[in-house]
Amino acid sequence: MIKKLTRASAGLAAAALLLSACSGGSGGSEDGGGDGPVSGGTVHMLQNADFSYLDPARGWDGGVNAFYRLIYRGLTMQAAGDAEDPNAIVPDLAESLGTASEDGLTWTYTLKDDLKFDNGDPITSAEMAFGISRAWDPEIGIGSPYLKKTIDAPEDYQGPYISGEHPGIETPDENTIVFHLKEPFPEFDNVLAQPNAVPFPVDSGAGDEFINDIIASGPYTLETYTPGSLIKLERNEHWDPDTDDVRKAYPDAWEFEIGLEGATIDERLLAGQGGDVNAISGRVQPATLARLQSPEVADRVLTADAYCTTYMGMNTTKAPFDQVEVRQAINYAIDRESLVTASGGTQLADPATTIIPPSVTGHRDFDLYPSDDNAGDPDQAVELLTEAGLEDGFTFTLDIRSQPAMQAQAEAIQQALAEIDVEVELNVIDTSTYYETIGTPSQQSDAAITGWCPDWASSASTMVPPLVDGDAITDKGNTNLAQIDDPEINDRIDQIMAMTDLEAANQEWGAFDEEVMALAPMAPILWEKGIFLPGENIAGYIPNTSMTDLTIIGLKDPSLG
After folding, report:
1. pLDDT digits over 258-286, tens only?
2. C or N terminus of the chain, fewer CB within 10 Å?
3. Taking residues 393-420, what's their average pLDDT?
4. Residue 148: which H helix or E strand, with range?
């Protein structure tokens, strides 16, 4: 039986697993018995690629964000994956969510008492302010952009190592931290739940200091790191579970085995031998799907809805993608049905026609580039190319990750565009450096296949704006792969961001999605669902196609494996 878990129902689905679990002194259940997670043992993560960065000021993608939750804490965070509302933002290091001033320009937080780093040093407002200010460093701060977009700072401010203390962040005492915003932003609690809004000891972390090391504030700290091969986490003895209402931290340790082929991972999980009964991984490979019907494994299979959109971004600074007709032609020509097939079929993907997926608040259903059975409309595409003076087609280079699934998607695009005499040359980039490469405009090719997930699914404010905001184009860590800088788009983003009625704002984001797609800076191609096969001894595992919450996962019996 395949079990399907949506984020909306995740808390209910997990309730049976966690019914007997309670928080103990080590952060986990002490009662043993049942099928819920208990304290102790080691959980293994089997994965193909290394994490982008251990430093949260640099990394910012679903896989590494889930890893960060094990080792870092912020003032706020996304609720646990088994919460009644797993999309909610809740206090973490702060005693409560922020208190906003009447004009919405000042937000104040009070830290909990007795917070410590993994070396025993206290976490105060000074360390919190310092860690957050690292987001402005021109070399290090290439991760989440929301701190820089919302907190007021001079244009020439370049972080603590170059410019000193952040002028937009006050620390009137050891437990109080005050943020001054550029404009009112009612979702600021969500901003502080981003992975780069975490504390670090003052004056630490310059240059590449955190490339192979960490200073932990969460329940685990780094024991061993062999880049591209292995990460071992052990308990942070200075983490106090009484200060943490979200992370259960059941296992004594985590081991991340890196560099494994997807087929190898699936074979190990199917066999379930030795320590692999305590293992989890990402999505299973399409070739494995038929074997999941076996009675021996069917009860372990879980599915998750799509919270992300896979798309092909087109670089509007490079000809011929500087012409809207060309970009619209590509949207018409792409055979999304063949892309679904290349991605494993309808069990794993649906054709995407909008940027905001149906599972994210604010989604509006529309298709500006329709075709029969989503198979593409080459005739309409050729008509648009002719208008652009490219009736004989053209050639462009497409950046893709070095993964079989993405290569299959790229080949489907190649075949579809060949029908309109457009030749696609593939530039295959290692997965561990892919996002850094395509996020550096000087290294970016003509187009790239990637995915985008909302940074908080309760609102569409993080789904479309990061992909098209001209004001946010940066030399490194750029999320606007199209590099589109349209004054009307920029003004529209500012207008909706300032709305205090979040329900009305979400309706506007849906309309904005359609406005953006009229300019076609990208081609949405898929909403990719997920099928997962955890080890037989894993409990509390609620997979998510955006970010699986590792902090609630544990073992049924720590003595196994």
Report:
1. 999 999 999 999 999 999 999 999 999 98
2. N
3. 96
4. helix 146-150
Domain at 73-191, CATH class: alpha beta
Number of Cβ atoms within 10 Å of the Cβ of 348: 21
Q: Determine the residue type at 168.
A: G
pLDDT value at 13 more than 70: no
Strand 309-314 to 522-528 pairing: antiparallel
* CA 229/CA 47 separation, integer angstroms: 10
* In the chain, where the domains are located: 3-48+219-305+531-555, 73-191, 309-528
Give Cα separations from 244 to 75, 271, 481, 551 (angstroms): 11, 36, 37, 11
- Eight-class DSSP state of 162: T
Whether residue 496 contacts residue 509, with contact meaning beta carbons closer than 8 Å, is answered with yes
Q: Give yes or no for residue 73 having a pLDDT over 60.
A: yes
Which are the contacts of 84, defined by CB distance < 8 A and separation ≥ 6? Answer: 11
The tokens for 56 are 């949260």
At 456, the amino acid letter reads W
How far apart (Å, rounded) are the C-alpha atoms in residues 481 and 521?
A: 9
Cα→Cα distances 234→39, 43, 182, 242, Å: 13, 11, 40, 19
Q: Of 80, 82, 114, which is closest to residue 95 (Cα–Cα)? A: 114
At 183, list the tokens: 């404009």
Q: What does the alpha-carbon distance between residue 14 and residue 551 come to, in Å, rounded to a whole number?
A: 14
Check for a shared fold between 3-48+219-305+531-555 and 73-191. yes
- What does pTM read for this prediction? 0.82
Stretch (H or E) spanning 519: helix 502-519
* Tally of CA atoms within 13 A in the half-sphere of 221 that contains its CB: 14
H or E element in which residue 177 lies = strand 176-180
pLDDT band at 523 (very low <50, low <70, confident <90, very high): very high
Looking at CATH, the fold of the domain delimited by 309-528 is given as Dipeptide-binding Protein; domain 3 (3.10.105)
pLDDT over threshold 70, residue 9: no
Give the whole-angstrom CA distance, residue 248 versus residue 39: 9
CATH code 3.20.20.70 for 3-48+219-305+531-555? no
Angle at 213 between CA 208 and CA 215, to 5 degrees: 105
What pLDDT shows up at residue 20? Answer: 28
d(CA 424, CA 397): 6
C-alpha to C-alpha distance for 557 and 561, rounded to whole angstroms: 9
Pair of tokens at residue 27: 């952060």
The answer on pLDDT for 10 being more than 70 is: no
State yes or no: pLDDT of 1 exceeds 80: no
Report CA 164 to chain centroid distance, whole Å: 30
Adjacent-strand bridge partners of 255: 44, 232
Pairing of strands 106-110, 554-555: unpaired
Residue 108 predicted with pLDDT over 90: yes
Question: Which amino acid is residue 117, in one-letter code?
Answer: F
Q: Which two tokens stand for residue 152?
A: 């007021």
